[in-house]
Amino acid sequence: MTTAKSLELQAEGRWRMLSLLCLAVVLSFSTWFSANAIAPDLKHAWSLSESTAAWLTNGVQIGFVIGALSASFFNLPDLVRMNRLMAGSALLAALSNAAILLEPGPFGAVLCRMVTGFALAGVYPPALKLVSTWFISGRGLALAGVIGAITAGSSLPHLFRGMSSAIAWQYVVLLSSSATLIGAMVFLACTREGPYPFGKALFDPAQIGRVLKDRNLLLVNGGYLGHMWELYAMWAWLLAYLTAALDGGSGINSQASLLTFVAVASGVIGCFAGGLLSDRFGRTATTAGLMIVSGTCALLIGFVFDGPSWLLTLVVIVWGISIIGDSAQFSAAVTELADQKYVGTALSLQMGMGFALTIFMIWLMPHLAELLGGWRWTFMLLAVGPIFGAISMLILRGRPDAIRMAGGRR
């Protein structure tokens, strides 16, 4: 009979596989915020309003929700080899992102962004599932690595723009599409499933009612929604805030782009820290603590608008670390608390609700900035989410069933 120890021996090379998978994910997710990084350019070139420009980001969110739920409903990761599914999805993301070079106008660009989001839904969940086939011990750290790779990849377009502010915006699109194309090749040629088959995680709409009646899952989802209320709105509009803070919003600013890159990329530290803290102190304490820190940053960011620059930099980096560090823990909590008969539905529903909320928040922020006369105090609204989320997770911590999480550490 095969033992867990012998299986570990069969998984030799798992760290190499994790490294290759994370590399491909970083490259592929450079298309997620590619339009957001060049939003100032597109607003000038296409005469876009701030709210219209928001749909260049929201298109990705909408496409991702549709793609993630569709892939789960039809169980694509079990019908198509995961490395092939991710490679094909990354290729589609590269092509749809590159289509912006044809300058299709606002409506066409939003459609391209929707296809990009739809395609990336074929990378994100399968990457998490594939890495789980290589790890039993150390799985939490491996999952944190993938989430960190997604975070790093999402920040890349800001690095591209910061390094090429003196040249045309088309180069940012070209660089992100090229990176994603390379990512597709890495997925296809260098990644494969490991020796630990992962159970099916189907989305069954008929089970939604059971998920919604589970009080433990309601509290977990309350924490997750608080997290998502803040996360993508901050990622999407931090460049606009920093551009306004550093030069009054008068145009393209390489310093603002580079600081946005640093802030978002620093979330990689948060992902690994969140995994380690969760193993040490429990999921509820870790998620609540990180949300308290990120919510505090949302409240403080307006006060450092005028500098000093070192303090502004410090706040946005701490925010970038804390805002994403708890992300993986909400999914882990669902797998530990949900009835295994509907864990797939619970995970899909959580992701669907979370990303649907980001669509509203990304749309709302420029309208609020216009109402307030600028970006300075706009981010204070984002503190509402992590405050609500932290309360939800602390309530969950006091429930008897919380002992099932993180090996009894709640």
Q: What low-confidence regions span 5 or more consecutive residues with pLDDT below 50? A: none
Helicity range of the residues?
over 70%
Largest sheet: none
**Arithmetic mean pLDDT:** 85
Rg calc: 20 Å
State which percent range the strand residues make up: under 5%
Question: Between the first and last Cα atoms, what is the distance in angstroms?
Answer: 33 Å
Question: What is the N-to-C succession of helices and strands?
Answer: HHHHHHHHHHHHHHHHHHHH
* Count of strand segments: 0
**Any idea what the shape is?**
globular
Number of helices: 20
State the secondary-structure class.
Answer: mainly alpha
Membrane topology: Multi-pass membrane protein
Protein name: MFS transporter
Pfam families: MFS_1 (PF07690)
Domain Major facilitator superfamily (MFS) profile: 17-401
Break the fold down into its secondary structure elements and pairings.
Elements: H1 4-10, H2 14-28, H3 34-37, H4 39-46, H5 50-73, H6 76-79, H7 82-98, H8 105-120, H9 124-132, H10 139-163, H11 170-190, H12 208-213, H13 215-247, H14 254-265, H15 267-281, H16 283-300, H17 309-324, H18 327-337, H19 343-372, H20 384-397
